[in-house]
């Protein structure tokens, strides 16, 4: 072999080896991870208070009446109180006798939560409405003598079957999809009624009026022909429908959106997946790296997401001590994806040592999950400590703050184990709507009642392809207090059942269309990791907002509240709110009359309500 040929061959081999080496480095990220690379840059949220204000006008007065013997009414009451608290509104509970003392006012609303109105004096309510008071009934009740006040022309009593679905006839808050009768998200016992011609109907179900407003005397009545106000989904409509009864209403918005990637980073299955092989001709690890992650990184940059990845150590079912350590056995692809996520400004939290839910044999869990319970808290603690060791070795300097329970199942023993094993974790994220399945952890936003060291931050929605029910969930929480918390799993694209047999090209298109729609309609929602979202929500919850109303002016003052602060503002359809440029930005919300979004850049904002020119 000639000397030139030998040199040429060596060069070619060197180039090939260099290419393979670079590809290997690119795939498994063999560069050492320094703590500087993983130090989390915590978001900052400025807080200000109004100076001493001489705001004039009336404050909003909400009075909630529930018959103590009405079980449905009391459930609605609790649900409504939670919804109002999230929107930074407050209602005082009153008795039937105290109703007689309420003075009618354009910014005073009596809220009836139940179906038992036997204690109420009809003549007292009529007088209150005639003199300008406002009334809102959240649960349908059969009282023909009230027909005139409620705007009912004819009343045939209760419909003998359950009515499903919901149709938007006039916009209460933008973005709600229609739900057909085949959709059982809303299942109602309703009255068979016909409304008077002058009544404004907003929602209906199977052709039956569900939500309407009737002007009566100088006042007005808003009526829910429904029994669904006991459920969490619909809280946004419950809050926003108060504005239908009033001339004006301001509700607060925390303005957050977060996106979680569950089971990520984690060991990647090496088996051939038929969906991936058919669509891309790639192995599962190759698909994750070249296709799925590239799309997810593009979505993060294009739509501003700050991902929270929930890390898992293995998928074995061992729960008894001694547990094998995870150190030295982790797939190289885990630090690769984890470092990529952190490089996008994301957060890494904990999903578990394995995918076995942290419950003992005595604690509830659906047996169909096929999980192996943990014998005791000590075994749970050991597993979590192994997980912390792995996280510290892969991502030194990155503090673990968020925990998501496998299959959203968690009980007291598991919470105690987390508190002992990983003191840095102060957020538990499970489900806001858990249904009836055994063992699921259903949460409300805020401090955990059993373990106050934890803040609950439940997910609202999940998946790459959101059906109308899921879109309804998302929109309703935005209408309530301006928050989105969405979950996806990397292997959703691999599972025929979860993906409905659709490939990633279809799923990613659906996912991106949803993200684009969300950004277009609610551009003010700030993309945050879970840990920063909880920080912002805590500041929002602790701050105070006061609103004074008059016919021509609305004044908002705050104490220890976020700046900028976000609000929905409802004003009469023939009025336009105006503020000084330095005070913030007002944007009319799409497909609505009189509903605006306000980004307040000062702690005190005064809105002038100008009459629209014909």
UniProtKB/TrEMBL annotation:
Pfam families: DUF2194. InterPro entries: Class_I_gatase-like, DUF2194. It comes from the Bacteria. This is DUF2194 domain-containing protein. It comes from Paenibacillus alginolyticus.
